[in-house]
Write a structure and sequence with these properties.
Length: 68
């Protein structure tokens, strides 16, 4: 999709079911213009936190917005 933005979001979760972030741990990186750029950022932040089992990051694509 042309014009989409990608974000890397995540942080430390309070339990291993990954439903609720620990307050103050949320991280957002982006926007990135391509999924490849977001994947590169995700790899870095995931590697930095790989020793912490309760930390998780995801790549999210922001929907295109059209104006009428």
């Amino acid at each position: 999709m042309s014009g989409s933005n990608f974000w890397v979001i995540g942080g430390e979760f309070g339990s291993m079911n990954f439903h609720k972030l620990v307050e103050g741990s949320a991280q957002v990186q982006g926007p990135f213009k391509s999924r490849k750029e977001a994947e590169d950022a995700w790899k870095v932040v995931s590697e930095e936190n790989r020793h912490r089992a309760g930390v998780r990051f995801s790549i999210v694509e922001e929907p295109n917005r059209t104006t009428t």
